[in-house]
Amino acid sequence: MSSPSASLRKAQGAAAPASAPPVSRARTILAGSVGNAVEWFDWTIYASFAIFFSSQFFPEGNETTALLATFGIFAVGFFMRPVGGWVLGIFSDRYGRKAALGLTILMMAGGSLIIAVTPTYAAIGLAAPLLLTAARLLQGLSLGGEYASATTFLAEMAPPDKRGFYSSFVFFSAAVGILAASAVGWALTSTLGKAEMAAWGWRIPFLLGALGGLAGLWIRRSIPETEAFSHSKKAGVEKQPLRTLLRSHPREVLRIVGFSILTTFAFYIFVAYVPTYAIRQVHADPKTAFAANTIALIVFMLVQPLFGILSDRIGRKPQLIFFAAGYLVFFYPLMTTLGPSFGSILAVELFGLVLYAMYTSIAPAIMSEQFPTSVRAVGIGTPYNLVVALLGGTTPYLLTWLQSKGMERWFFYYVLAGAVITLITFIRMPETKGQDLK
């Protein structure tokens, strides 16, 4: 086995040639994370602008029915994520991280372009919702594949002692995409009237998403293949990666599932649902709730690199255990004492998102450190996206239904049970800081 210093020199060579200026390392991080920003921008604008374009894709008459049908198509795209993690994970492990990164961003941009230019139901009839569905299926596949591809790329390109820092830009870029979608929504709704937004204004963000995808593709065109993949390819590719994964790495697969339970709840509660919960449950002013959510998301984005650097110094496990234990101890009392004031909502949001950032900042690193290169992308993409689809896809609906019955506290117990499973997973996992991914 090579010495740590030799491994470090090799990994640094993979990230950038020794003679390259520092911008080369920055370009590596940008290339690995830009697609994630575009993916989450495109994914978010669909939900944000559905209220404006839903009536354009379905027969006139019942706006609520049209909106529900539009969100039904959103859910279909959501459940394509595990398929994307599986299919594009295998593609990445066979043909390389660079090829997979190019394909995923092209698919997402293509889906946005289809939505942007599809004629209305009044113009082409049933073909309109069919094209919308096809676009969402394409984007669901893309989002499932992008996470696995970007995760493996950044982890394999990083020097072993900086892998946490490099990995932090996966969720940093996701927050950038979500905030950009929110900013575009604010700008358009502040400039255009409701009638203009419904007629044509909703097409603008999808066109921007398509253009952003092309820009990301241009940035990714000149990135090198990772040294870990090139080294693995010489030994041959796995002909049956799923069988190899389940037979040779069942513990690691279950570990990814354990990681993803609490973290999926955390994302969909604190990124998406707390503002709605505050408005409906404690009668907070909508502007107050969404302002607190936006500020908390900005903080969440900014602390990603800091926690990535921290994990490179103290290790992965202490940070992960602190995250899960924090949720186990404080989640229930904070959620049940949430008030309508800006300070109360912001405190709850900051608790949820800052603790969650202790995981997201190093999630790509710890996931990549579980598997050998030959099955790394499919090993991450398949179990992770499956858990996200099963739990994330049902979280808003389940919480809304329980809330309507006055039983929302049962959902909090559900989250606490997930926190116990995830905490045990973190305690039992080996420390992987500085591991050689080759």
Itemize the secondary structure elements and their pairings.
Layout: H1 4-15, H2 23-57, H3 63-78, H4 81-95, H5 97-117, H6 121-124, H7 127-157, H8 163-191, H9 194-201, H10 203-220, H11 227-234, H12 241-248, H13 250-281, H14 286-314, H15 316-336, H16 342-360, H17 363-368, H18 376-392, H19 395-404, H20 408-428
Class from secondary-structure proportions = mainly alpha
Structural domain tally: 1
Relative helix content: over 70%
Q: Which residues sit in consecutive blocks of at least 5 with pLDDT less than 50?
A: 1-23
CATH class: Mainly Alpha
| First-residue to last-residue Cα separation | 11 Å
CATH architecture: Up-down Bundle
SS summary, helix count? 20
- CATH topology tier name: Growth Hormone, Chain: A
CATH H-level superfamily: MFS general substrate transporter like domains
- Count every beta strand, where a strand is a DSSP E run of 2 or more residues: 0
Largest sheet: none
Nearest-integer average pLDDT: 84
Characterization of the model:
The structure is a single chain. The protein has 438 residues and is mostly helical. The chain has one domain: Growth Hormone, Chain: A, CATH 1.20.1250.20. The protein is 82% helix and 0% strand. It is built from 20 helices and no strands. The N and C termini lie close together (11 Å). The N terminus is likely disordered. This is Alpha-ketoglutarate permease. It holds the Pfam family MFS_1. It comes from Achromobacter agilis. It is found in: Cell membrane. Keywords: Cell membrane, Membrane, Symport, Transmembrane, Transmembrane helix, Transport.
